Model the fold of this input.
Amino acid sequence: MNHSIEILVVGDIHKDALSLLQKQGNVTTITNDQYFATKSFPTTQVLVIRTFSPLQPKDVAKFSQLKYVLSCSVGLDNIDIAELTKHKITLVNCLGTNANSVAEHAFYLLFALLRQDPQRPFAELKNKTIGLIGFGAIGKILARKLKGCEVNVVAYDVVAQDVTLLRELNVAMVSLPTLLNKSDIISIHVPLLEHTRNFCNKEFFSQIKEHTFFINTSRAEVVDEQALLWAVKEKKLRGIGLDVFSNDLQTKLSSLCKNTLLTNHVAAQGEDSFREQCVKPVEEWIKKMSHHQ
Done:
C-alpha cells in the first residue's frame, strides 16, 4: 500500500472497489453534498466519482494535485473531458460495464407497459416490431434477449454495424424515418452528445405510428419533453416507460397518460453491473500505476 496516494471517493461505490482502493492509498469518502460544499481539495490525487457528481471547470479548479479521475459510470456527460486534458489529468472509465443491467431494465419496462395497459384487450409482444435507436452494447444485448420473443427487431445507428452479428441477432438496420414509421415499440439507447440532445423532438414524434410504446433508459436530455407531451396529447403514444426524466415531466405525465411507468434513474444499478462499473475502472487504474512504477 502506498500511503502517500490521497484518494477521494464521492458517493457510494461497490465495497469491492473500495477495498481495492484502500490497498492503494489513503481513502476519504464523502457525500455529494459535501463535494458541492467543499471549496478545495488540496491533497487529492485520485478522484472517484459516479454520474451524479459533476466535474466541470469550476469543480476541477478545486483540485490542485489531481492526477487521475476514475469514473464509476459509463456515461461521461457529467465530466468536462477537455478540461481534464488541459490540466493533464488522466480519465479512467470502462465502457459497457452497465450494458446488461440497462438492457434488462428496458426489457422490464417493455413487458410492464404491455401488461399494465388499461386498454382491453391489452397488447401482446408477439409479432410486434421493436425499434432500437442506438445499437451499441446495450442495444445489442437487448436484441439478443428479444430473440426468442417472436418479434421483428429493427435498429438505427450512425455507426456501421457488423453484418455477421446482425444476421445472428436477426436485426435489420434501417433509416430513422423507416424505424419510426414501422415500430410498435421504440427504445432509446444513445449517449448524450451535442447531436443527440433533444434528439426525440416534435419532428421525431410526428413520424411515429399512432399508439406506439416509447421507452427511454439513456439520458433525459435526449428527449424534448415538450415534444413528448405533444405526442401524448395527439394520442401518438399508448405507453411510456422512462428511467430518466425531469420532475416537471413526471407531474404532467401523471394526468395525461394512464399507461406511464417511471423509474428513478436506476436502470444501470443491477448488482452485477454496479460492481463492474466500480471495480473495472479501479483495476484499470491500478494497472496504469504499476506500469508507471
Q: What stands out?
A: The first helix runs from residue 15 to 22. The CA atoms of residues 149 and 178 lie 22 Å apart. The two ends are 13 Å apart (CA to CA). The mean pLDDT is 94.
